[in-house]
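U., I forgot to send this yesterday:
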Amino acid sequence: MGAFPPETELLEDLNGAGVAVQSAGIGPVEALLGLEAMTTEFAPDEVLFLGSCGQYQGSDPVSYISGGFYTFLEPASLLGRSRMVPGMRKYSAPSPGEFGRLCMEQEDFVPAIINTTMSLSLESHALSLSLLEQAIEGLEAGTSAAAHLTQWKRWQASENRPVMENLEVFGMARFCEIHKIGFTSLMAVTNLVGPEGSASWAENFRPMGRALQEKVRPLLEKWKG
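Result:
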């Protein structure tokens, strides 16, 4: 699935024989509704989301990433400019399916954390892994989420995982986690988050989206075969 056709159109000829290529919708609400409709129609074992994202400051730039952990945090709330309700679920760690694991094993895709926001950030933010961890632990204090927090901490290890911003993926990841559907996301990093982000996205999303699909296509053909 992609948010809209340019993110998946080069793979549409592979529809059939256990594969469905669909557009989910743009933004957190439409994407989740699109995913729900797709799961009702096809009852998939796993979902692969292809999309684009912006990279927050705080780590070395990368071009293509695989999502391994998903958060739902507004940067303004981390900076004390707004408040998110403590009881809201703010992270998700769905398990990838068979095809998703094959994709994530490829060196082309750097493991990353993907943060979903309700709107595009127009300020430059340095949302590091450690800052997100502190935010999640603080927001989730007193809840029964210890297992997920333990998994989150494993991500720190010795690497500085890049953190991305995307408008669709958190709700989809959480939906698949709840319903035990394998979920993986692969994304082109089209811009840095900040005031020039939208212009860079507009310039890069089509060529980088094509390149992403070209990376996935032989893997999908192999998996189908």
